[in-house]
Design a protein that fits this description.
Order of helices and strands: HHEEHHHHHHHHHHHHHHHHHHEHEHEEE
Structural class: alpha/beta
Helix content: 55-70%
Strand content: 5-15%
Number of helices: 22
Number of domains: 2
Largest sheet: 5 strands, mixed
């Protein structure tokens, strides 16, 4: 596994990698926040900045969000403070974290083999579907993967060069994971390194080269204060987060204890299907590479057994762990993509006697598939061919039409997170028309956002009180036009 690339191949790969990153950067603000995940986390960061409550993220004003630690929210809120409250600011931290991950992957490949391995691995990873999407999305998982990657890279380097600072970097990586998603980090890092340690009979070396005591204290110093403060500020957090989010969510299919939505009940083993989609287009290329290199694969693996086993365990641990979980998301496969990219790069660079130069130009072209697909989807969504799950257009119409400064925008039954974000938290929510009547009775000319399926609840003569302003993505934007009796409205949908 020691093939040198030609300068031409390196140039192709470098151009492809820069192109992928450029597309990701310049598309960060070309589409609105989508409900529910991205809009929810973008709005929580906005509330954090507005309220200056940097300890407890808020699901709604005064409602603590116990589902995840706040690192990603801190980053987005800090970005808002520096660059303003908008989509670009919220997404920049994920792109920066993705760049850090790519640098770590490149450095690991260069350390293990040479810069060629790092370059191919970084190109493969950057252009894999889920990593490319996550690099510009307001989600918690990118920070988690950054922490896991730092921990796994640092552990390997500490084992192979003995530098003490890599041992401390290992615990810094775990701390980042603990502040991103919680104790799950300990499992996703601890399982592969423990199995690898026993598999390779490296217990003595691991004990000597990793500063377990002082590094453990560093990890606690970085992460534990927030957990303590969060529990003191909102008692009950630890019970919900540790027991609910880290046990029942994964063990109980369709878990009903989720305070912030519904559990994602899936068939056991769905995580493997997600991993195939997440690693596209490389998930289709990898089996082909294994077949093509089969004649020299076994001796190459035997020469690099420790390295291959380490990457394999790193890749397979999240997939095996979530195989038995009934509540999963596609983003749970993200930690596996890093070692898969390194393994894919190793296979590309594995030359046999019949083929001294691997087809690296094909890597460059394949890397462009995902960014081109994103550009196509953005164009189709902007042209209305693909529906958008965002209230940005409706809020824009409301803000343009609002002449009464006291008039409010009111959502019936459920107010989407994107509506909260694009209204700066001003959009209201009513559960039924009895509550809505309070606003219809006041002197303000308010607006109402109502799903098409809910229009029947207004009664046949609703047009005497409200006029249709605009039909936007399955919602009717209605404006109050009179102060007549409300007898024509049904009391409760």
């Amino acid at each position: 596994m020691n093939q040198l690339l030609s300068s031409r191949s390196r140039r192709w790969l470098f151009i492809a990698l820069l192109s992928v990153l450029a597309v990701r950067l310049f598309t960060l603000d070309t589409y609105p926040f989508q409900d529910t995940t991205e809009a929810r986390y973008g709005e929580m960061a906005r509330k954090m900045l507005e309220t200056q409550n940097w300890v407890t993220p808020q699901f709604d004003y005064g409602v603590p969000f116990w589902g995840k630690p706040p690192l990603a929210t801190w980053l987005s809120a800090g970005s808002y403070q520096m660059f303003g409250v908008n989509e670009l600011s919220a997404r920049i931290p994920s792109l920066i974290l993705a760049l850090i991950i790519l640098v770590l992957v490149y450095s690991l490949g260069k350390f293990q083999r040479r810069a060629d391995l790092g370059l191919v691995a970084a190109t493969v990873l950057a252009s894999s579907t889920l990593f490319f999407v996550a690099a510009g999305a307001v989600i918690m998982d990118t920070a988690l993967v950054a922490g896991i990657t730092l921990a796994m890279v640092s552990f390997w380097r500490a084992m192979n060069n003995g530098k003490r600072y890599w041992g401390y970097a290992f615990f810094v990586g775990i701390s980042i994971g603990l502040l991103s998603k919680g104790p799950l980090t300990l499992l996703l890092v601890g399982i592969p390194i423990t199995v690898w340690t026993f598999w390779q009979s490296n217990i003595r070396t691991v004990l000597q080269r990793i500063p377990w005591f002082s590094g453990g204290l560093l990890m606690l110093a970085l992460s534990l204060p927030w957990y303590i403060l969060a529990e003191l500020r909102t008692p009950g957090f630890l019970d919900y987060f540790i027991v609910g989010e880290h046990w029942k969510r994964f063990i109980v299919s369709g878990w009903q204890g989720d305070l912030y939505g519904s559990a994602h009940a899936k068939t056991r083993g769905t995580i493997w299907l997600y991993s195939i989609v997440a690693f596209l287009p490389w998930s289709f290329i990898l089996p082909s590479l294994i077949w093509r290199k089969r004649s020299v694969l076994k001796p190459a693996v035997l020469r690099e057994q420790s390295w291959v086993v380490y990457l394999g365990l790193w890749a397979i641990t999240p997939l095996l762990f979530f195989t038995f979980s009934g509540n999963i998301l596609a983003t749970y496969t993200l930690p596996s993509l890093i070692p898969l990219a390194l393994l894919c790069a190793e296979l590309y660079l594995l030359a046999d006697n019949k083929q001294s130069k691997p087809g690296l130009k094909s890597v460059a072209f394949l890397a462009l598939i995902t960014p081109l697909l994103l550009l196509t989807l953005i164009k189709l969504q902007g042209s209305g061919y693909i529906p958008t799950k965002s209230q940005k257009e409706l809020l824009t119409a409301y803000q343009e039409l609002q002449t009464d400064t006291n008039g409010q925008l009111i959502y019936l039954r459920k107010r989407p997170f994107s509506a909260q974000f694009y209204s700066n938290g001003q959009a209201l929510e009513v559960k039924n028309w009895q509550q809505a009547m309070t606003y219809l009775n006041n002197e303000n000319k308010d607006f109402y956002a109502i799903k098409n399926s809910q229009l029947s609840f207004l009664g046949e003569n609703w047009s005497s009180k409200l006029r249709l302003v605009k039909h936007i993505h399955g919602y009717q934007l209605l404006q109050e036009i009179a102060d007549d009796s409300l007898n024509n409205l049904k009391a409760d949908p």
